[in-house]
Input
Amino acid sequence: MTSSGKLVVVGQGYVGLPLAMRAVENGWQVVGVDVDARRVKRLAAGESYVEDIPDRQLRAALDSGRYEATADYAAAAAFDVAVVTVPTPLREAAPDLSFVIDAARSLAPLVTPGATIVLESTTYPGTTEELFGPLLEEGSGLSVGSDFRLGYSPERIDPGNRTWRLDNTPKIVSGVDAHSLAAVTAFYDSLVERTVPVASTRTAELTKLLENTFRHVNIALVNELAMFAHELGVDVWEAIDAASTKPFGFMPFRPGPGVGGHCLPIDPSYLSWRVRSRLGRSFRFVELANDINDHMPDHVVGRVTDILNRQGCAVRGSRVLLLGLAYKKNTGDCRESPATRVAARLADLGAEVRAADPHVDAAHVPGRIALVDADATQTAAADLVVVLVDHDAFSREIVLRHAGAVLDTRCWLRAESAPEPALAPTSTPAPAGAGVPRQRSPSGPVLVESL
Output
């Protein structure tokens, strides 16, 4: 397939916009459709809201005349390829495919013989053939396979990853028949370095869920291990590093305050829901992992309470500085972020919660949380600093020099260049709720604890 045809990308978020930009750079005429009029307005003005796409790249696409952002599906008429990258959230523990359904119904009247349509949205096995395809057939009057091509290709976008991008990450491709697979493969071959064909759309749909379920379950394992190791007086981080020296049979995962983003808190539940609804059985690994990871913010809050109590402070009235509100390092994405859940629960307990995150839009910060800079003044004024996200923008030196007590959920302070902190209180704690700097140890904070 040549890269000079018309491509429609439905959904201009963290998956759809990078795909659209890559296609423009490779010669496609691209229409980016998004139902959010505010997004469309920003895109038309050359203002990107996706961190992986700088404004200059978006403006170059607009200036080329090969990219148009719109909320009107009419602009998608006469497309050669359409890719659907809309959200698939959970609603009351069940998949919500309303955005996929709306996209299919809106595209269907525009489908012409020979067109190729690809679903990229994460979903359960069977969606492409049982739901998406029939909706396209119903609205177009055409038949899948004989009239138009249909396939599924799971997105593998990792926001903030500068090493593995859309173009060099292997792309799983599938089709409902041989002709569809060939068309889908040819399209992605025009954009990425390597495509990986699989036998069916169901396999491709399951592949995406398998990738994230694997991560979800293993993160849950080390999260639970971290809780037990703390109670047993064992350094779980050192144990993980030591186990990582084994050159076979082990892959390191590291604990944290929970899981976030669109993928890990949601995708495994799609698989669990499908197994239960279709087979009538529970996917026990997924359900256990959900329980562990969902309660990690509660564990962090419990550790905060314990540390403040040992310092002579109640949670209510204490000033807590949270470093990071995003769900992962070096991004501003707060979707399903465990850090925001920690912030909300501490605020519920009466803590004076302040948070620092240079990547997060202030509009996404919970109303009871004050967004501040992670400077020496804010660090020194906190009764406890909690490291929730290890952004590169944060300064270890400031924390080690000015913090009174630290709970480090990311093992961020344990860097070769960082001075060795004191591991036990070395000064008299301030009265509960004082919210003022305590006397510092010359070697570092009064107290540093990891998750």
Notes: The first strand starts at residue 6 and ends at 10. The chain has a mean pLDDT of 91. The chain is about 35% helix and 15% strand.
